[in-house]
Amino acid sequence: MTFPARTRGRRRRFLVKAFTECILPGRIDTPFREEAVFMKSLLVFVLIGFGGIQEIEERMSKARREYDMEAAKAVVREAREEIPEDAPPAEQYVAARALLLLTELHRFEFEERYEEMSRKDRRELGKEIDEIAEEGIERAEKMGETSERYRLEADFYALKIRSKYHATKFRKEMTDAADLALEMDPTNPHAYVTVSKPYLFAKPRQGGDVDKAFELLSKALELDPSLEMAKVFLAVAYDKKGDSEKAEEVLKEVVDANPHSKMATTRLDSIRDGLEKAEER
Fold first, then answer.
1. Is the per-residue pLDDT at 217 higher than 80?
2. Domain definitions of the chain by residue range
């Protein structure tokens, strides 16, 4: 028998509540109470068997790997239906990540189509990016005081900055959240990628520092060698440092691992064009 999505959600939340209160009782007294509550919620989340949420996770992973906008939109619609505003922190984490994926894909579309879009279309897409990012921030805030909560918030604020980090609007919110994410968990690889963004993309007079970005991205990959965005950004850093051949090598590794990676293929094509022009001179 298959339950409707809302019925599955109510049933799952009842089981999580019952399991938490009856099987995992007791107060959590620790300096890292919020982190402990989040991990307890996540443990319950896994042990119960979370049906629709697991499906969301699987589809989210596939949409991210394939840069599939329509699939990402479908994932967000399902997350909104399955995960209410008062859901446990672990479920809020899933909803926030689904919203982040959709925001990232819209931002990639914004940058890829910028020159061909009318001013009106840019404004409308920018507004959509901001609205999804705000929804994501609200979800992240319900995760409690965790490193991933602040990492997600920082990423959402970064996606709202559309001036290569020249503008000050949202810059402080982004950097404060990113710094807090690293302070709370120095082993969070995603946080190092987030912190690297203004150093990598801003001009020196706006705080850009390619060497600093390179250091942060190298640390992220040391912690998690599979992070695709960290590899793409590291290639950008190599290119900015004047080593286009190394940048090409890194991007080729990314494309070989994931041929769907539009971010990597776009930058790889650009770097190869540059190398070809340099050879022609």
1. yes
2. 1-145
